[in-house]
Design brief:
alpha+beta, Protein Transport Mog1p, Chain A, 2 domains, eight-stranded antiparallel beta sheet, three-stranded antiparallel beta sheet
């Protein structure tokens, strides 16, 4: 069972929240239950402070035995099968969970100890780090889009473009007070010409909903940019 509490757009700290529970059965089935604090997943504005279901409720739904009959009746995909592309979204995660966590570990600077890691099959990974001055959350989302997809191009219209065509957005924002007292978020969002998108965010708190443990996150925006642009994500 994997629980993920993030955002529909991982670089928008004021946007729509998406909370999900992902349950993998012993026979290869999977149940994913998601809830948003908006009227639909495509709505750009929240309609309420938090999604309607909490973590316990999502877990209860995802693990219900009533899904057993549904899963057993589904056709099995071969290893060569590819999921259909959803309209206006990434075609797939950029890589598997373990690979992304491994790459993230290799890119975290020396002196910044990793306390905890977590990830899911959608290309989202979380790392809790500590340099001795307070724990901080780092989130990374790796997505593979079709190059020049209008749905993602719109989000990078004001980005800085590098000589190789890579688009970069950076941001330093105060986090809404409903999430955690004194929390700030620093973000770097990168889109390669190949369609590979890497969004890296860090907080001066150890988790969503917790107050700040320090005045600023441990990594500078320059360091976050270096992580997002690193070629290891291609490997």
């Amino acid at each position: 069972m994997t629980l993920v509490q993030g955002f529909q757009n991982p670089v928008d700290p004021h946007g729509v929240r998406r909370w999900s529970a992902v349950y993998n059965t012993n026979d290869g089935g999977q149940v994913t239950v998601s809830t948003w604090n908006a009227r639909s997943e495509d709505d750009p504005k929240p309609s309420r402070p938090q999604p309607a279901l909490n973590a316990d409720q999502l877990t209860k739904i995802a693990t219900a035995h009533r899904w057993d009959a549904v899963i057993s009746g589904l056709p099995r995909l071969s290893k060569h099968s590819q999921p259909a592309r959803s309209k206006g979204g990434p075609t797939r995660p950029a890589a598997g969970r373990e690979h992304l966590i491994s790459v993230a570990r290799s890119l975290i600077p020396d002196g910044l100890g990793i306390v905890h890691t977590e990830g899911d099959q959608y290309g989202f990974i979380d790392l809790v780090v500590n340099d001795g001055q307070g724990q901080s959350l780092i989130t990374i989302n790796a997505q593979q889009w079709i190059p020049n997809d209008p749905a993602i191009e719109r989000q990078f219209t004001k980005a800085h473009t590098l000589t190789d065509g890579t688009k970069v957005i950076t941001g330093q924002d105060d986090y809404p007070s409903v999430v955690g007292k004194g929390v700030v978020q620093w973000t770097v969002d990168v889109m390669r010409k190949s369609g590979l998108r890497i969004a890296v965010s860090e907080f001066n708190a150890p988790a969503y909903g917790l107050p700040a443990t320090r005045r600023e996150p441990p990594l500078s925006v320059k360091q976050l940019t270096s992580i997002a642009l690193n070629g290891a994500w291609f490997e």
